[in-house]
C-alpha cells in the first residue's frame, strides 16, 4: 500500500491508496510524489504558504462511517453464508432427484374391494402426518398409562410432541369395548356346523374361485417362491375378509388404543401391538390416523396384526410399498407367513377319520395335543382313505356338532398346525381347510 504525503497548515497529511476500513479505492501501479520547498516553510507565518497537494484518486465514502466488524463476526457471517448455500444446494438436489425418480406402477385393485388403501405420505422426520401438540388432550387426556406409553415410544426415537399430536386425536371407541366384553364364541349352539356355515357356502366358493382366476399368476408365483398351496392363501382371505369385501371400519389406532386401555385381561398384548403399529407407520410412511381394520386392530386382506405386519408382510408387487390392502401384496405376505411358520410343501393338511368306537371322544384333542399315527391307531382312529400322510406329527380334531353330542372326527397333520399359528382355533383352521379344498376342486386343481 502506497501513501502520498502533503502538508497543510503545518500538519502532514497522508492519503491512502489501499483498501482500508472506510476506503474503497484500490492502489495504482504508478507512484506519485510531491516535493515541498523547505525554505519556504521556514518563512514567518504571516507570509502566505504555498501548498502543493499530491494528486489524490477520488474516494467514495458512505455518508456515515461504518461500524467496525470484528474478525469473529466476519467468520460467523461467512459460516452462515456457507450454510445457506449448502442448504440451497441440498434442496436443489432433492428436487432434481424427485423429478427424475420413476413413478411406481400399481396394479389395479379388484372390483370387489370396497375400502381404500391408507394414504402414504412422505416422512418428514418428526413423524408422518406432521402432527404436533404440547401435551396430551382429547379422549385420553391425562391417562397415566397412555402417557407412560408415549414416554416409552419417545425413547424409541419418536418425537414426544408428535406423539402428543397423534394421540390427542385418537378416540375412545365404546363399541370396541363392548365387543371385547361379549366376543363371538365358537362354542355357541350348533357348534362346528354353525361356525362352518358362515364360511363354507356356495356363494363363498364361487367368489373364491373368481378371486383365484383373477390372481392366478400371483398365486402361482407365491407357490413357487414360498411352497404354499394357493388354495390355502385363498382360503385364509375368504375366512378373514371375503377376499377384501370386509376389511373393517375401525381406525386401527382407535381400536388398539381403546383395547389397550379397556381390555384389562389383554392390556399388555394390545400395548405391544400399539407399539408395533406406530413403528410400522413410521417405517412404511403411513399416516397413523389413516388405516382402518377390525375392532381388534387387524389389517388388510389377511387381517395381519401390526406385529405380524412388521415380521411377515412383503412387497410382492415390487412397487416399494408393503400394502396389505393390496391383494397382490397380501398374497405374498400370507404365503410368507405360512412359510416362516414351517409350512411343508406338498403335504396334506387334514383328512376325515374313521373310528372303531366312541373312545376318541373322551381323549384330549385339538392342535395343542400331538399324537403319532401309532398312538391314534391304538384308540381306534385312522384315516378314512386308509393312508397316513408322511408326517410324524398328527392331531386328533374332534369337531363338536352339538353340545355334549356327536363329535366329527378328523386327523390334522403338520400343516393343519401351521394354520393354527394364524388363528389359534381348531374351528378356524378347519374352516380354512374346507373352504380351500372346495375352491380348489371348483377351479379344477382338486384331488
From TrEMBL:
Keywords: Signal. PANTHER family: MEMBRANE-BOUND LYTIC MUREIN TRANSGLYCOSYLASE B (PTHR30163:SF9). It comes from Thiothrix eikelboomii. The active site is at residue 240. It comes from the Bacteria. Residues 92-122 have a biased composition (Low complexity). NCBIfam families: MltB. GO terms for biological process: peptidoglycan catabolic process. One of its GO terms (molecular function) is peptidoglycan lytic transglycosylase activity. Residues 1-21 form the signal peptide. Residues 90-123 are annotated as: Disordered. Residues 148-436 form the Transglycosylase SLT domain. This is Membrane-bound lytic murein transglycosylase B.
Amino acid at each position: 500500500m502506497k501513501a502520498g504525503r502533503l502538508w497543510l497548515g503545518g500538519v502532514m497529511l497522508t492519503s491512502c491508496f489501499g483498501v482500508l476500513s472506510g476506503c474503497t479505492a484500490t492502489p495504482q501501479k504508478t507512484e506519485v510524489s510531491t516535493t515541498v520547498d523547505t525554505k519556504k516553510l521556514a518563512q514567518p507565518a504571516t507570509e502566505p504558504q504555498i501548498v502543493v497537494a499530491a494528486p489524490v484518486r477520488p474516494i467514495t465514502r458512505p455518508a456515515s462511517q461504518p461500524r467496525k466488524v470484528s474478525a469473529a463476526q466476519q467468520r460467523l457471517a461467512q459460516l452462515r453464508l456457507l450454510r445457506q448455500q449448502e442448504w440451497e444446494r441440498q434442496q436443489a438436489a432433492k428436487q432434481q432427484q424427485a423429478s427424475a425418480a420413476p413413478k411406481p406402477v400399481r396394479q389395479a385393485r379388484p372390483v370387489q374391494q370396497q375400502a381404500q388403501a391408507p394414504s402414504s405420505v412422505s416422512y418428514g422426520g418428526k413423524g408422518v402426518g406432521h402432527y404436533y401438540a404440547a401435551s396430551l388432550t382429547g379422549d385420553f387426556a391425562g391417562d397415566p398409562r397412555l402417557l407412560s406409553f408415549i414416554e416409552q415410544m419417545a425413547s424409541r426415537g419418536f418425537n414426544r410432541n408428535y406423539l402428543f399430536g397423534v394421540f390427542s386425536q385418537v378416540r375412545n371407541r365404546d363399541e370396541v369395548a363392548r365387543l371385547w366384553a361379549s366376543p363371538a364364541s365358537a362354542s355357541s349352539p350348533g357348534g362346528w356346523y354353525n361356525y362352518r356355515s358362515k364360511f363354507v357356502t356356495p356363494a363363498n366358493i364361487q367368489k373364491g374361485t373368481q378371486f383365484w382366476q383373477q390372481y392366478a399368476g400371483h398365486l402361482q408365483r407365491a407357490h413357487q417362491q414360498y411352497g404354499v398351496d394357493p388354495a390355502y392363501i385363498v382360503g385364509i382371505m375368504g375366512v378373514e375378509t371375503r377376499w377384501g369385501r370386509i376389511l373393517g371400519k375401525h381406525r386401527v389406532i382407535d381400536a388398539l388404543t381403546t383395547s389397550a386401555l379397556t381390555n384389562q385381561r389383554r392390556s399388555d398384548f394390545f400395548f405391544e401391538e400399539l407399539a408395533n403399529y406406530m413403528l410400522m407407520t413410521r417405517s412404511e410412511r403411513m399416516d397413523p390416523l389413516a388405516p382402518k381394520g377390525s375392532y381388534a386392530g387387524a389389517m388388510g386382506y389377511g387381517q395381519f396384526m401390526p406385529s405380524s405386519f412388521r415380521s411377515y408382510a412383503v412387497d410382492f408387487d415390487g412397487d416399494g410399498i408393503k400394502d396389505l390392502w393390496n391383494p397382490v401384496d397380501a398374497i405374498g405376505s400370507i404365503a410368507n407367513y405360512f412359510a416362516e411358520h414351517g409350512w411343508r410343501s406338498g403335504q396334506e393338511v387334514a383328512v376325515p377319520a374313521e373310528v372303531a368306537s366312541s373312545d376318541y371322544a373322551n381323549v384330549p384333542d385339538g392342535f395343542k395335543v400331538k399324537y403319532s399315527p401309532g398312538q391314534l391307531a391304538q384308540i381306534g382312529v385312522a384315516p378314512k382313505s386308509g393312508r397316513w400322510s408322511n408326517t410324524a406329527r398328527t392331531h386328533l380334531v374332534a369337531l363338536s356338532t352339538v353340545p355334549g353330542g356327536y363329535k366329527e372326527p378328523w386327523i390334522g397333520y403338520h400343516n393343519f398346525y401351521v394354520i393354527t399359528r394364524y388363528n389359534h382355533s381348531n374351528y378356524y383352521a378347519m374352516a380354512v381347510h374346507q373352504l380351500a379344498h372346495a375352491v380348489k376342486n371348483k377351479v379344477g386343481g382338486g384331488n
